[in-house]
Amino acid sequence: MKKALITGITGQDGSYLAELLLEKGYEVYGIMRRKSKVDYGNIEHLKDKVKLIYADMTDIVSLINAINISQPDEVYNLAAQSFVGASWEQPVATADIDANGVLNILEAIKNVKPDARFYQASTSEMFGLVQEVPQKETTPFYPRSPYGVAKLYGHWITKNYRESYNMYTCSGILFNHESERRGLEFVTRKITDAVARIKLGVQDHLELGNIDAKRDWGHSKDYVRAMWLMLQQDIPDDYVIASGETHKVREFIELAFQHVGIDVVWSGEGVGEVGKDKATGKVIVKINSKFYRPAEVELLLGDPTKAKKNLNWELEITFSELVKRMVESDLEKVRSEINGREYFNEAAATK
């Protein structure tokens, strides 16, 4: 039985990866940060199937302890301050976790279990102000956020340890991947949650920033499969994982509303632009300048040719299916929330 250690196991990718590894017969360990209240996040349904270890990416002693306990064959580093917008507000914390944290886990592996295979979660945000379209493994990097800069350090230190110490280390340069388990602070979940609430009459409208930014979107389940495939190869290497398609945030909005029977029509320009319900004329989307980034990334489009050829990896969930799954999941969550509130109110009224 192989053993795997996942940092960031409670997040979107960590939970899907844990499910995948359990299905493949792995003994799965996960790192959690100690909090005053235990929060299992997206692995609530797996908490009895995985072995959890308290550690922190900024504390190398705790990471050494985690490697000693788990003795992993494979380590997947998915822990990060992963919200790009917050990286301008918390640049030092972002660097501590996303840059130095990678160095810490690599040092822990090197000194305790140097034969373990290591996966680093790199990101398309490292391309930032893109130097060529589409972006592939050889495209020059130009990050446009503290998050992208920190992730670039993590990417290069992973490559450096491979070349310096002959360790099996890989980086997956993953383009935007979403799911029903995405946090509400991310634009895709912000959209699908708002669409569900507007449809069910508990929210008036949605406010966003740059809706013409273009992204390459896929589903997290497809992308964690690529992570696993990278660590099964004879020779470690870095791979771009992407759909090979780009869509505007505007398209994501339109498709999400279409799934609940609402057609969006646009009028106005810039911060004065609004999206209206075609049937009623009601404004359901507004532009708010506070959601613009200090330095915008306008276009991301990945070239997954290398991954398709070397890993035999293919995307299985389409962009349209991704949006549909997220909207349907949020409709179910909001309905449950409404029913719970109504039950509470009825119970209170009978007292």
What are the salient characteristics of this protein?
40% helix, alpha/beta, 17% strand, 7-stranded parallel sheet, 351 residues, 4-stranded mixed sheet
Secondary structure elements and pairings:
Layout: E1 3-7, H1 12-23, E2 27-32, E3 51-54, H2 60-70, E4 74-77, H3 86-89, H4 91-112, E5 117-123, H5 146-165, E6 169-174, E7 177-178, H6 187-199, E8 206-208, E9 214-215, E10 218-219, H7 220-230, E11 239-241, E12 247-248, H8 249-258, E13 264-267, E14 274-277, E15 283-287, H9 305-311, H10 319-349
Parallel strand pairs: 1-2, 1-4, 2-3, 4-5, 5-6, 6-11, 7-10, 8-15
Antiparallel strand pairs: 9-12, 13-14, 14-15
Helix pairs in contact: 1-7, 2-4, 4-5, 6-8, 6-10
Catalytic activity: GDP-alpha-D-mannose = GDP-4-dehydro-alpha-D-rhamnose + H2O
Domain NAD(P)-binding: 5-326
InterPro entries: GDP_Man_deHydtase, NAD(P)-bd_dom, NAD(P)-bd_dom_sf
In short:
This protein has helices at 12-23, 60-70, 86-89, 91-112, 146-165, 187-199, 220-230, 249-258, 305-311, 319-349; strands spanning 3-7, 27-32, 51-54, 74-77, 117-123, 169-174, 177-178, 206-208, 214-215, 218-219, 239-241, 247-248, 264-267, 274-277, 283-287. It has 351 residues and is an alpha/beta fold.
